[in-house]
Specification:
- It is a single chain.
- This protein has about 375 residues and is of the alpha/beta class.
- It contains 13 helices and 17 strands.
- Helices cover about 40% and strands about 20% of the residues.
Length: about 375
């Protein structure tokens, strides 16, 4: 079959009434009705990502979308400037859409093209906060609905000011309260989002150790692996990181040094579906578990399920529930039952974009939290 890419189209869609956006791309072909859908959402950088995706169009037009590895290598290497969240997320979004096209052409779900199934279903976790009575009640309800693992932030910042001693103490108390509420058989995952200083990270880990968390995620910023290793040496709780690392090269030192127990590549940032499979294979050599990051739309969620389905060391998957129009913007064929995702059965990724619904939720500029310490200096958020 003579098949060629004929164009790209990006969509910026508000993801939340309070700010935030998803960024989608459709890849079009010369075969009537055959398109692929991908996602490259990066917080607070929606317009930048959309532009970066669009700049690949002049290179991709006329190319065979089935040659995914060659196109990835070309998009990554030919422009000379490589790396970072913007460029890698643009490539990831397009690569995701190419797999969608290939699966639709062959009439099979993408995971069947990645070596077939490594499991019967995918274990999920979702989000909440134990740092208020209402938040704790919500987490208990999520557990009763079937989730065997839940994730939360380490603490609630008061009035935008981080107080290390107070916040660590209060946050640890909330984690312990959650453990008492859900019992010993539910996994507790804590996402620090890089909010800690290294000293705070160690203090927090020691205070929550009795609650036996499954991991503390991003206990520090990703720029310095030695800092992460310093925390790991002192933490009684396993660590996880990876959502802000990109490509196999970005993960290599982390994996080789075994600085964490769980790595967390994001398919929409790390380089796409096949690149994430490669990263997971590198981790498998070191007997490291993989927990794919996935806090965006149902497009990324579906892509994650396909990688999870065929990757032996992908042991748990993030599952956001999100905004009220989440399932209207993206129609998904994926099925979730009792805290697990069934393996996708529809051809391609199994998701479709409702363009009319997208138009009802236009770009909504967002500004992330702007925390400070008590002296007014900038704190990570």
């Amino acid at each position: 079959m003579d098949i060629q890419i004929t164009g790209l189209k990006t969509f910026i869609v508000a993801s939340n009434p309070n700010g935030g956006n998803w960024v989608f791309v459709k890849v079009y072909t010369n075969q009537d009705g055959l398109t692929g859908l991908g996602e490259g959402t990066v917080t607070s950088k929606a317009e930048t990502i959309a532009t970066a995706i669009g700049e690949h169009e002049r290179f991709l037009i006329g190319r065979d979308p089935r040659n995914i590895e060659w196109l990835w290598q070309a998009m990554y290497r030919y422009p000379r400037w490589r790396g970072g969240p913007v460029l890698n997320s643009a490539i990831s979004a397009i690569e995701m859409a190419l797999w969608d096209i290939k699966g639709k052409m062959l009439g099979v779900p993408v995971w069947q093209l990645l070596g077939g199934a490594a499991r019967d279903r995918v274990r999920l976790y979702t989000h909440g906060s134990p740092h208020s009575d209402a938040g704790l009640d919500k987490l208990v309800k999520l557990v009763k609905s079937g989730y065997t693992a839940v994730k939360m932030g380490p603490f609630e910042v008061t009035d935008g000011v981080v107080d290390p001693r107070r916040d660590v103490r209060r946050g640890a108390a909330g984690i312990k309260r959650l453990r008492e509420a859900v019992g010993d058989d539910v996994d507790i995952l804590i996402d620090a989002h890089g909010l800690f200083t290294p000293v705070m990270a160690v203090d927090f880990a020691r205070q929550v150790a009795d609650a036996h968390p499954m991991w503390i995620e991003e206990p520090c910023q990703p720029e310095d692996l030695a800092t992460l290793a310093w925390i790991a040496e002192r933490s009684p709780v396993p660590l996880a990181t990876g959502e802000r690392l990109f490509t196999k090269w970005g993960f290599n030192d982390l994996i080789q040094q075994r600085a964490v127990a769980y790595i967390q590549p994001d398919v929409s940032h790390a380089g796409g579906i096949l690149e994430t499979k490669k990263i997971a294979a590198m981790a498998e050599v070191k007997f490291l578990e993989v927990a794919l990051h996935g806090a965006s739309s149902e497009v990324l969620t579906a892509a994650n399920f396909h990688v999870d389905a065929g990757t032996p060391n992908c042991t748990i998957q993030e599952h956001p529930l999100g905004s009220p129009w989440r399932y209207e913007v993206v129609r998904t064929s994926c099925v979730v039952e009792g805290g697990y995702a069934l393996l996708p059965q529809a051809p391609g990724l199994g998701v479709e974009l409702d363009e009319a619904e997208c138009a009802r939720h236009p770009y909504n500029p967002d500004v992330r939290s702007q925390f400070t310490f008590a002296d007014g200096s900038v704190a990570d958020a």
